[in-house]
Amino acid sequence: MFSSDTSAFRLRTVRDPRDVGPDGRTIEARLQSLAKQTATEIKECANACDTYQKKHLLVKVLKGPGWETTLVGWIKTFTDRKGDFEFALAQHT
User: I need a labelling partner for 28 at 20 to 30 A (CA). Which of 3, 53, 66, 69 fits?
Assistant: First the structure.
């Protein structure tokens, strides 16, 4: 996996987001849909966290395993999304 320092360096090398990469796609096109998808997922995660926060303590304790599964799912989603961004940058550079 790429380190975040490497990803930031790769992004700095992109002079024009409309430059065509080796596969014939621009970095702009490649990242635009990924960014929109990620924004939607961030909002969904925030809604889930808000819902959890508003629950009473007893409900949190009793339904803890279910919430743990939900939150672990979000961790996996964002870990996958990070990999997707790094892969998109790697493809372009």
Answer: 3
Provide CB contacts within 8 A for 65, sequence distance 6+.
none
| Sign for the pseudo-dihedral over CA of 80, 82, 69, 41 | negative
3-state SS string for 10-70: HHHCCCCCCCECCCCCEHHHHHHHHHHHHHHHHHHHHHHHHHHHHCCHHHHHHCHHHHHHH
Dig out the tokens for 73 from the structure: 């799912």
Cα-based angle 32, 48, 55 (whole degrees, multiple of 5): 165
Q: Are 39 and 85 in contact (CB under 8 A)?
A: no
The reported pTM is 0.72
30-86: pLDDT as tens digits? 888 899 999 999 999 999 999 999 999 999 899 999 999 999 999 999 999 999 988
